[in-house]
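agent> Task received from the user: take the single chain below, predict its 3D structure, and emit structure tokens. No templates, no multimer pairing.
agent> Plan: (1) validate residues, (2) run structure prediction, (3) serialize to tokens, (4) report one or two observations.
agent> Step 1 OK, no nonstandard residues flagged.
tool_call: predict_structure(input=
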Amino acid sequence: MEKLPANVGWLWLKEGFALFRKQPAEMSTLFLAYLFLMFAIGIVPLLGQVLPIILIPVFSMAFMQACVNVERGKKVYPNLLLTGFRRPAFVKLLQLGVLYLLAAVMAIAASALIDGGTFWQVMSGGQALDPDTVRDPRFSLAMLVAALAYTPAAMAFWYAAPLIMWQDMGVGKAAFYSFFAVKRNGRAFLVFGLAWILIGVLLPVIVSNLIGLLFGKATVVMLVLLPLSIVMTVVMYCSFYPTYTHIFGKPQQPAIGQQ
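)
tool_result: status=success, residues=259
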């Protein structure tokens, strides 16, 4: 497990964009298929609120495997969404998903100590996010507390799914290796995170202002920002793959999902 310099965080982002650029339509189609599937799962009574979270590790492997295919010159198809459903990894990925859910619940519950449960109500759909709530400093502090409480779990989950799928690790071992891999390369992850925050905030603002000046219509701005946000999200997903390969090496599994 290598310790990487801080500037590698920017390299991860560049490599993610390079992967997307090789098959932009195919990667975007995979993402849209994922969104449609999540929407369909979300309308299932009772389970619709928790299944999308529990299945995050399962579906995350679709995008990781898609990056493998792109890297090897193989086509990406929507059937890659089934990648994480392969046994024996599927059961362990589901177990990891349950841990995702528990960690999120505990982090949001911790925020209730700050704002009396307002953030919890908003996240669970029990309260609308109105302007007064957003302006409340306790609400902002509660969000920060929840984020800080979830950070150790996020570190443990970051590489857990690919380590389970590609290196046949158990859930506990994968979480352990993931946590210390992120901790060891904290500076690179800091650069990576800051780069995405800057791009995610500055780019939409610049584009929306330019479109607003040229056309002066909010509908035109939205028509431009929607596909831009999709592209940025897919590129971000693609950039997760080089964070894995730079530390754990390239997966040895054959490319799948070909037709």
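agent> Step 4: summary for the user.
The chain has one domain: 8-248.
agent> Done.
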